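re: that chain from earlier
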Amino acid sequence: MDREAALSAFMGRRVSPKTLRRVVVDLAEEVEIQRALSLTPGGWVLFVDQTMVPAGPTHCGRHLTLCLAVTKRRRKGKRAALQVEIILLDTRMPLTTALQTVALMLRTTPPSLIIHDGDPTITENLDRFFPGILRQRCLWHLERGLGYALWEDDLPKTARRPFQAKLQNALHTPSLPTAQRRYKQLTAELDRLGLHHAADFLRGAEPEAFTFRTPLPGLDPSLVRLTAQGPIERRMRELNRRADVGCRWGPKGIDAVLLLQVVAALDEHNRPFLETQTAA
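^ sequence. v structure.
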């Protein structure tokens, strides 16, 4: 049963696609009004990322900017319970405007750490609007970015994997000084082999590659360990998959669809903590 038929059956009358769009947008606006951030200065991590979603008339769609806040609440069994909140989800704002808006929202409750994918445009705007806040490159993007740089160096896919494995080994070597030395050795090896795009990529990422290995004041170490693996990328890929609702909605409509989907997913994610808190 398609969406229109399902909603028509539920409401007892025929619902047109236009009505369905209006209901979704109205519901999203209601949810937006009810949302309230529960952040305190420090002690939490800001995720920043962009992806393309199928919105509007163009084939490629539009950029979606997603900013999430992750805080550690308490332990649930053997794992740390995390609270995840949406700070911004938007397909209409340019990235600079979006991050400036987030910076204004967080001026009294800044994060301890920002995790991002290393995109130069994002990096430039983080420098501008979040000066002095420590940053960590998403580890998933580090490996993927190295693969792309090796592709730019004309290295076939099978030949890229050993270098990506060396990067993973360097990042997770138990001794931090040894890990950093292996990272530099890999960079030098790439230079010697004439793989200069890859070497330049690692040099550019190095200042933010090992932040997750260093204790951060005000931030629980387990929170950094849990979030440094780039779960935001999994969320972005899921959004990308779900955003295509079988037709080209406009930016306002796709924002509404995505907001409702993310809120529902995060409500489900946060429910065990909320139930435990209520029971206590």
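The beta strands are 44-53, 62-76, 79-90, 113-116, 134-137.
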